Amino acid sequence: MINDNREKVLTVLSLGAGVQSSTMALMSATGVLPKVDCAIFADTGYEPKGIYLYLNYLKSILPYPVYLVSKGNIKKDMLAAKDTTNFVVAPFYNQHTITGKKGMIQRQCTADYKIIPIKKKIRELCGVDYGKHFPKDKYAEQWIGISKDEIRRMKPARDPYILNRHPLIEMNMNRQDCLNWMKKNNYQMPVKSACICCPYRDDKTWDDMKNNNPKEFADAVEFDKNIRTISKDFNMKNYTHRSCKPLDEVEFIKEDNQLDMFNNECDGICSL
Q: pTM of the full predicted structure?
């Protein structure tokens, strides 16, 4: 339990419709965990079809409201940019065509398309307009679906009126424990939550998309081509894959040089 002298006015579950957050949602629905007041799903507009299907499945069985919030369509916003001055900042890999030097763009997409929309909804539910002072003697508890095998992803909320809680870690559960619990209780299995274009995908998830979701992979390939020259430096090219090769030219199994970077990125919000 979390001790806080302030009055808790809301308990909200940050829902990504992936394995961990869905497990928390179902545990809350069935009494394994206390019942939350609601869940909030931040829609980037570029989630895999499987995520939207699973979200609808959850909404059909959860006994509390699931709110959808959105800043907009992240894909359209990214491709509308002419250079990185007004580019939606995602952690794409880049390479200088002359020097060959590789780098990575600093990430801001999780904050813009996940954290801030959820935060605005929390304030709305608490009756405090965005930009107004939140009462110092009150707070909202936000459940984050981080399991014990991802404990390094734990971070405090950026705002003092939100107190992050990690029930899966409190229950000493890892990701496989979550899958086992869902299977034991005859729930449908979720897919991994991440934008179709997310550079934090490892080769295994890219290869799975290529073989099992060819339409989404074709979308990702086209997106990868379109971000190539979005840069103030004409010689700097952007890529979604760490190899800095066009996505459709990467041999994923042979070039399995990407760690599962979801485990230490995206502020404990994405991929859950």
A: 0.89
